[in-house]
Amino acid sequence: MIRARVSGVSLNSRVKGFIVTLKGDAGGSLLPIHVGLYEGQAIAMQLRRIKPRRPLTHDLVKNVLEALGVSLTRIVVNDIRENIYFARIGLRSNNTQIDIDARPSDAIALALRMGAPIFVEEEVMAKAGIGEMPQEHEENKIIEELHNKLQQAVDREDFEEAARIRDKIRELEKDKD
After folding, report:
1. Is 170 exposed, middle or buried (0-12, 13-18, 19+ CB in 10 A)?
2. Do 23 and 74 belong together in one domain?
3. Bridge partners, 83 (sequence order)
4. Is 16 left (phi over 0), alpha (psi -120 to 50) or beta?
5. Are the C-beta atoms of residues 104 and 18 closer than 8 Å to each other?
6. Chain-centroid distance, C-alpha 9
């Protein structure tokens, strides 16, 4: 198994979702995983340490596990079949280890919230890993950052700045097509 960390989350407007990129701690390959909008936002919020006013689903699961005295020992992205990733969540309760099937997006969001290590099976990295960050990923990362700045401008009610950022996003997205 390869220990990994989340190296980035970027918006992918073509598939109306996000790409979460895992990178092996020892360097090497990157593993891009397409995830849904909600899951990508939950992961991005945790990486940026943004606290929602009320617990989101992954926060609720964390709170329930902690209240029951269950610890998250690790998550493992353990398989890929027909371009669908699979993961296992490792839980420990009263000296009993339990592994539960999960979507990688949910497993990653929970691992980030609970400070648990993330692993990728070597076979999965060999099948789906890439050697370096593709140009599209970098463009998506820039667009995601602009979306965050757009939201901040709207929150500040700086609508001139928001319009400028919106136009820049449209220009970048148009260039991608």
Report:
1. exposed
2. yes
3. none
4. left
5. no
6. 5
Q: Is the C-alpha dihedral spanning 52, 55, 56, 61 positive or negative?
A: positive
Measure the CA–CA gap between 137 and 32, rounded to whole angstroms.
9
How far is it, in rounded angstroms, from Cα 46 to Cα 11? Answer: 15
pLDDT 10s digits, 55-102: 999 999 999 999 999 999 999 999 999 889 999 999 999 999 999 999
* Angstrom distance (rounded) from CA 158 to CA 176: 27
Predicted confidence (pLDDT) per residue in 37-53, tens digit: 889 889 998 988 888 88
How far apart (Å, rounded) are the C-alpha atoms in residues 75 and 80? 15
41 and 108 in a single domain? The answer is: yes
Residue range 5-27, pLDDT digits in tens: 998 888 877 767 888 999 988 76
We report the CATH number of the domain holding residue 67 as 3.10.690.10
71-81 and 118-120: which strand pairing?
A: parallel
The residue to which tokens 């999960």 are assigned: 102
* H or E segment to which residue 26 belongs: none
pLDDT top residue among 157 and 101: 101
| Total-model pTM | 0.73
Residue 89 and residue 72 in contact, taking contact as beta carbons nearer than 8 Å: yes
d(CA 177, CA 175): 6
The number of domains in the chain is: 2
